[in-house]
Amino acid sequence: MSAPVHLHRPSATSSALDEETARAELYGLLAQLFYAPPEPALWDALRVAVTEAPATGAFLQEPWQQLVATARAMERSAVVAEFDRLFGGVGKPEVMLYASHYLSGFLNEKPLVRLRDDLARLGLGRDDQMPETEDHIAYVCEVMRYLIAGDDMEVCNLRVQQAFFAAHLQGWTPALCNALQEHPAARFYAALARLAQAFFSVETQGFDLLD
Q1: 25, 43, 73, 192: which has the fewest C-beta neighbours closer than 10 Å?
Q2: Span 131-158, mean pLDDT?
């Protein structure tokens, strides 16, 4: 599943092992669900999804089951309303989805500048039609999906994934996931945050093994 966060460089189908494909698909799913309320086709697919972990490792089994169960218990209209309350509206959103907010306390700060510099080095760029800045959680998840599933081995390899993850995801996503899990109005997105937090923990452990 690809997210509506378009890079200038096209994505390619991964020929990697099943585990790598599953990693890429999960990053893509997180990107889609954090970017916008689920479209009907995605919502229907999620509600009938098998409740097996979408990536290797039993550690993801429970949060995946909880996400699917939450989707089955809710109407899509309620999830749309939840998304709008948490992330939309006039003025400051109740929960921020941008790295700069968590790393510096303000939007459009140095973390965004560093991210743009790294994206330029990778040969990637933001689609002009995308309203969000590049440090939005959906965008960085989509970049990770590309770094796993793309066919340019100069950038689509584990070492580049490790460096990008450490620089642009690892330091702030726990705070985002905690904010969602603690928010009284978050139900579907609290479940999504639990899955994201578990997945990022698995990713951190996996990258640590490379050192």
Answers
A1: 73
A2: 93
